[in-house]
Design goal:
The protein has 12 helices and 11 strands. It has 420 residues and is of the alpha+beta class. It folds into 2 domains: 220 residues, 2-Layer Sandwich (Ribosomal Protein S5, domain 2), CATH 3.30.230; 172 residues, GHMP kinase, C-terminal domain (Alpha-Beta Plaits, 2-Layer Sandwich). Helix 3 runs parallel beside helix 4 and helix 8 packs antiparallel against helix 9.
Length: 420
């Protein structure tokens, strides 16, 4: 069956998107499953839908991490600030003896089928095929089941969690067959190996660099909710914060169908590459990437690149600098300052980066109006249909009700809101 032919029960939403609304309903009810519950569910779905033949599956789980200010690191090595979610994605897998890999997703009636060793498989199957290919252990097909609790509108956050969970499952499956030799890898070496393979597969699927920050966050064992990642060195540190003073966070999802960034993301990547190349010929020969442009040099750099690339340069450099300011705000528990920084980021996304639409603008205006009611700020996360909201925990439910009410006349789709 063509990998694009995935339907959902009772609707026509394209591809693999609508099924994860099952999990989003759990989030909306503020229910957080334990990793073991995700994994048990994935195993049960695989056995129920694809039968017991082929043996017992192995299962991986990864938590998601939403970018607070992180999307710029798709385009150059910089700093990313992420909010680690309690929700995640679990993938269960086993070998099969057929000529196709079969994938079942919670809530989807049809089975996705494709040859995992073909090139340019459309849709979500293309990501799974790239993951099989980069692992490169053996030329076999697989049965796979996926259970998730991360909004697909978060884009990179969902893709990274799904990719790392699948690789964890496949690696365990291969290790099971190879035991007792070769010697088992140390856990840290295993994570590094899978990190690099996940980034490689995601970059192939995206058609350009995929930010390591989302993969690192998904594989991280840190329990702190805030994570600072340097995508140049691949290092990360938890950002400490007083749990008693932390604000509430919520997600507004205005669209669910964001499988990968496609052409628009590639255009942004090309612009970032062109800006860097132009700067190197206009007095900035020392820079390796845009992270090397100092704030004091920004005005000179803007003049050097000319009008065509000014908005791209201003957005990417400012986003990278604002990550550091956000870290300071979190450490000081200055949530109003953090909210203001997110609103500045959102304004840049709208004016300089062109990833926003009318619904993003509406939610931003509502957040500005609710600042006296305990809403600190909002920001688009994932360059798709999701926005993060930060505010006083008791203020979030009423604000989300207002968003759904005000947004309904402006879209034919469902506006999903949930507290995380």
């Amino acid at each position: 069956m063509d990998s694009r032919r995935i339907g959902s029960e009772g609707g026509t939403t394209p591809s693999f998107v609508r099924p994860f609304l099952y999990a989003l309903n759990r989030m909306q009810a503020n229910e957080v499953l334990r990793p073991s519950q995700y994994m048990d569910r994935a195993r049960s779905i695989l056995m129920d839908r694809l039968g017991a033949g082929g043996g017992a599956p192995v299962t991986g789980f990864s938590r998601g991490a939403a970018g607070i200010i992180a999307d710029q690191t798709h385009y150059f090595d910089g700093y990313a600030l992420l909010l680690r979610l309690q929700q995640g994605v679990s993938v269960s897998a086993r070998r099969n003896e057929s000529s196709h890999t079969r994938v079942v997703i919670e809530g989807v009636t049809e089975v996705l089928q494709f040859d995992a060793y073909e090139q340019d498989i459309p849709g979500f199957g293309g990501l799974l095929a790239n993951l099989v290919q980069v692992l490169g252990k053996e030329q076999v097909q697989f049965d796979v089941s996926i259970v998730g609790g991360i909004p697909t509108g978060l884009g990179a956050a969902f893709h990274a969690a799904a990719a790392t969970s699948f690789l964890l499952a496949l690696d365990a499956l291969h290790a099971e067959r190879e035991r007792p030799s070769p010697p088992a890898q140390e856990p840290s070496e295993l994570r590094t190996d899978l990190r690099d393979k996940a980034i490689e597969a995601l970059s192939r699927w995206y058609g350009h660099r995929f930010s390591p920050a989302f993969v690192i966050a998904s594989l991280s064992q840190a329990e702190d909710p805030f994570l600072l990642v340097d995508t140049s060195t691949m290092e990360y540190v938890p950002v400490p914060s007083d749990s008693a003073k932390r604000p509430g966070w919520a997600i507004v999802e205005t669209s669910h169908d964001w499988q990968k960034p496609m052409a628009e993301s590639q255009k942004r990547f090309d612009r970032a590459e062109a800006v860097t190349g132009t700067l190197r010929t206009k007095g900035f020969a020392h820079i390796r990437s845009l992270r090397d442009v100092e704030h004091r040099e920004l005005e000179q750099a803007l003049s050097a690149v000319g009008r065509r690339y000014r908005s791209t340069l201003r957005h990417l450099v400012s986003e990278n600098r604002n990550v550091q300011k956000c870290v300071v705000a979190i450490r000081k528990a200055d949530w109003q300052f953090l909210g203001a920084l997110l609103m500045i980021s959102q304004s840049s996304k709208s004016s300089d980066w062109d990833t926003t639409g009318d619904l993003h603008e509406l939610v931003t205006n509502l957040a500005e109006s609710a600042s006296l009611d305990g809403i600190f700020g909002v920001v688009q996360s994932g360059e798709g249909g999701c926005m993060l909201v930060v505010g006083q925990p008791f203020s979030l439910p009423a604000f989300l009700d207002q968003v759904r009410e005000k947004a309904a006349p402006h879209t034919s789709g469902a506006i999903e809101t949930f507290i995380i």
